[in-house]
Amino acid sequence: MILLFVIAAGIRLVPEIIAYPYPIGYDVINYYLPVLSNYENYWPVVSSQFPLYVILLHEIIIGTDFSPYVVVPLAAIIIYGFFSISVYTVSRNIFRLERDGSFFLSLFVIFQTALLRTAWDLHKDMLALTTMLFAISLGLSGRNLSKSPFFVVITLCIFSVLTDRMIGLLLTATLITYALLRKGKKELVLSGIISLVYAVAILNGIHEIEINIQNVASGETKNVSYKQLNLIILFVVTNGLLIPFGIIGFIRSPKTILKIPLLLSLVGSLSWIIYPSNSSLLPDRWTFIFSIFLAIFAAYGIVVLIQKQPAYKFKNHRLYFLIVLAPFMIAGMLFATTSADAAVSLFSAFHDYVGQFGPISMQANSISIEESKSIVSAIDWMNHRTPLSSVIVIDKHWRGWTELELENRSFLFYEGLDKLEAQRKGFYLLSLTKTSIPQFEDARVLLVYKNNNFLLHKVSFDN
């Protein structure tokens, strides 16, 4: 398992090294780094958003005195390593595979593009999934539980549901379903405790939930990118190659427990059928989660097929595993390492349809790594060449960059341009070189800075 951990951690480390010193991951630049750099200011908001993971990172930063720029990616790398071990324990305890089969299954899963996309920026999801799989493999594999393991399983489940809202919902629903099917005392107790913990966590952020419910009811969360065609293509791209083998693994699986989150996440990924063009139910996120569980069953199905071959011999099975694994290894590492400006991945070929659901390469955050270099240069120029207290208007996807790098100046999003224009208040407008800038009535627009990817215009009004 140590070797497996090292391989998995290395896979997640490689894209960080290539992108260094710029962070990868949309939520990393727009959530984790700003929150951990200004923890006290963000706490009133973060405290209602399943803050356990952020709290842990904050405590690590305080205890080690390391920068958030070090702790955030390092934590993501370590979690990826432990995730591989959690999959290994599932293959041993749920599927009853021998060590070589379990090792293959784990490698097959950690090279999946859907998992790497999740690990790109959804770090809370990865930690919650890891503890969820450990809990399932240790406590819900059909063995009788002693008091000590049962306490460990409860602890892992609580940790999982308090880490992420979506995975917490999946685990809670899984435990309830499993308890109803098994009707065992300990399963019922476990599902009851975890349901209560999750309910308390949800109530802590009830205001945000109420807003989402109202948005769903009113249709305000409709998103042009959430087209049925786009979501169908995303589902096919992430799962098409896995489904045939996943069906075999599903049928041959000796245990029920892991089938439950697979089917529940499938329902979530197809929620667009009921609520088309509505982003609140996050069908794209559910599609990625479904793909992760499907990959586990697909790998098991592949092991079953290989072991049934007449030519299968113990001395040759590793070669068969390697032949099957090779194309998935190549696809995963291309997604992890190729430049976002010339990506080679499953997603890049269908970028016009699925680009809004995730990156075409891990070499990006809210923008590509090449653009990251340019925006840092642009903000540095603003810090030295624009008057103090200047207002910088930006795209909302760049908010993390400006919050982290902009000094003694404020920023607004493009959506606030009308208000500034009505007030006839001067500002600076940051834009990509490939985009056109808006027209302003009775305003002087002067280009004051330009680099390879960004333009900065000064907009002033005659008062």
Characterization of this structure:
This protein has about 475 residues and is α/β, with parallel strands linked by helices. It is globular. The chain has helices at about 1-20, 25-35, 40-45, 50-65, 70-95, 100-110, 115-120, 125-140, 145-165, 165-180, 185-205, 205-220, 230-240, 245-250, 260-270, 285-310, 315-335, 350-355, 370-385, 400-405, 415-425, and strands at about 390-395, 410-415, 425-430, 445-450, 455-460. β4 (about 445-450) and β5 (about 455-460) form a beta hairpin. It has a five-stranded mixed β-sheet with strand order 2-1-3-5-4, with helices on both faces. The termini are far apart. It is built from 21 helices and five strands. The protein folds into two domains: about 1-355, no CATH class; about 370-460. Helices cover about 65% and strands about 5% of the residues.
Compact overview of the structure:
The chain is an alpha/beta fold and 463 residues long. The chain is built from 21 helices and five strands.
- Number of structurally distinct domains: 2
Low-confidence stretches: none
**Average pLDDT taken over every residue:** 90
Q: List the secondary-structure elements in sequence, H or E.
A: HHHHHHHHHHHHHHHHHHHEHEHEEE
Q: Structural class given helices, strands, pairing? A: alpha/beta
- Helicity, as a percent range: 55-70%
What is the approximate shape? globular
Sheet-strand content, in percent, reads 5-15%
**Through-space gap between termini:** 70 Å
Total number of strands = 5
What is the spatial order of strands in the main beta sheet? Answer: 2-1-3-5-4
- What about the largest sheet? 5 strands, mixed
- The radius of gyration is 24 Å
How many helices does DSSP assign?
21
